[in-house]
Target: PaaI family thioesterase
Amino acid sequence: MDHDAPFDSVDPVTRSRHYSWPPLPDAADRSPHAGLDALRAIIAGERHLSPGAYSLGVRLTAAEEGAVTMTAEPAEWALNNGGTVHGGIVSGWVDSALGYATATVVEQGTGYSTLDLTVRYIRALRPEKTPASIRAEVEHAGRSTCVVRVRVTDTDGRTCASASGVMMLFRP
Model:
């Protein structure tokens, strides 16, 4: 990565967050994000996650055909007034995981977008029980849609959220 690589720093004393995000790829480079090779390049640090995923603090840690694992260690900015991780942040992690899992089963050049997302919050995710693990597995990859299920667990291995979603595929 170059010296302009994205960064994220949180100062708990001043309660401030300073970060930069990766630039969007040029229009001609937006579809090559599919395929295991693209995801392995992200894990190796040769490519970046999407700006949205990066800003939510999620990291891609493993990818195989049909599944990805991501981790997230939220800072105080991601908490609700109850001191637990805001459900919208968890939903953002899940949405990112849907897309990256889909990328493992489609060929390079295939685009995709979330068509449906259902998140079930089972228990509060407490910051002291993070980094959270987000595991997404493809249940079905068809011609026009991909069905994915996701599980968010805390450091004790307890499920905090489960989700399912459908990705619409845009094949070349």
